[in-house]
Amino acid sequence: MLLGASSLLLSITLCAGLAPKGPWDAFNYAPASKLVRPVSVRSTHGSVVRAQRLVKDASAKATFTGNSSYVVLDWGKEVGGILSLTINDATPASQFSLSFTESPQFINPDRSDDSCHSTAAGDGDGVQSFRAPLTKGLLTQTIGQQRGGFRFLTIVSNSADPLTISNISLAITFMPHWDDLRAYPGYFFAPDPGFHDVDFLTKLWYAGAYTVQTNTIDAHEARLQPCPAAGGWANDASGGPVEGPILVDGAQRDRVFSVDYTIDSYFASDYTAPTTVPTDALLFRLIPEQKKRDAGGAA
Ligand SMILES: *[C@@H]1O[C@H](CO)[C@@H](O)[C@H](O)[C@H]1NC(C)=O
Ligand SMILES: *[C@@H]1O[C@H](CO)[C@@H](O)[C@H](O)[C@H]1NC(C)=O
C-alpha cells in the first residue's frame, strides 16, 4: 500500500511541535487562512458583467443581467465550509441560486454533484436557491447549508432583473480544532529521480494529509440522514457518539461514518470507535506514535 510504503520514508520530528521548514512546504495543500476566496473564473454564460472582478478583490462587483446567466468560479482546490457573499444591488424580482461540484464534470447551473440525493448521473443534489425579494447586504449560509467539499461554485441568475454581488468567501469548517491548517507536526520529502515525476511520492503524501484534513469535521456537522425530502442537503446532523472533531469518509458526501474502516483505521490505528474515529488519531499524530511503538516505547 502506497501510504504504508511512504511511512517508512517519513522524516519526523521526534519532539512535539512543528515540522521544520523546507522544500516540502511547497507541497502542502492546506490554505494559509481559514477564510478563502475563489481564485479564478472558469467560465461565464449569458451576461455577467465584470465577472472577473469576483476573484480580484473583495469589494469589486459583478452584475448578472438576464435570466439563466451564470458564472463558474474555481477555488483552485477542494475546499469546504460556510459561503458568504454580499448582495449590493437587486430589484424586488432579482433571484439566484448556487450549485457546487468537486469535479468539473458536474458543473451545471441547475444541479450539484451528489452528496445527499444519489442518482445514476451523480448530480442529484440540486441547487441552493435564494428567491425574490432578496435582502441587500451580507448573505451567509447556515451550518446546515454548507457544502463539505467542492472546488467549483456556479452562481446563476434566476430572473431577468439585474443582480449585483461581490465579496465571495468561504469560512473553512474542516479541522475545527486547528487554527493554522498548515501547521503539520510531521513532514515528508522523498524525491525519486528514477520516476518521471520526481516529486510523485511527496505529492501523494501531502494529498493524503490534506484529504484527512478535509474529512475531519465537527461532530455536529455531519450529513443529515435521511436527506431533506424537499431536495438539497443538510450538514448539521450529529456525526457520532463522540464530542470533538470526527474523521469521516468523505468531505462532500460521506460525512457520516467511516465505511472504509480498514483505510481509516490506518490513520486512526489504535483509537478505534464503533462508528466514528476521534481525530486525536490523525495521521499527523499517528506516525510519531507508531514510531514510538515500533521502537518498543509505550504509545
Ligand atoms: C465581506 O465578507 C466578510 C466575510 O468573509 C464579511 O465579514 C464582511 O462584512 C463582508 N463585507 C461586506 C461589505 O459585506
Ligand atoms: C428563467 O428561465 C427558466 C429556464 O428557461 C424558466 O423556467 C423560468 O421561468 C425563467 N424565470 C423567469 C423569472 O423569467
Automatic annotation (TrEMBL):
It comes from the Eukaryota. Residues 1-17 form the signal peptide. Keywords: Signal. This is Glycoside hydrolase 131 catalytic N-terminal domain-containing protein.
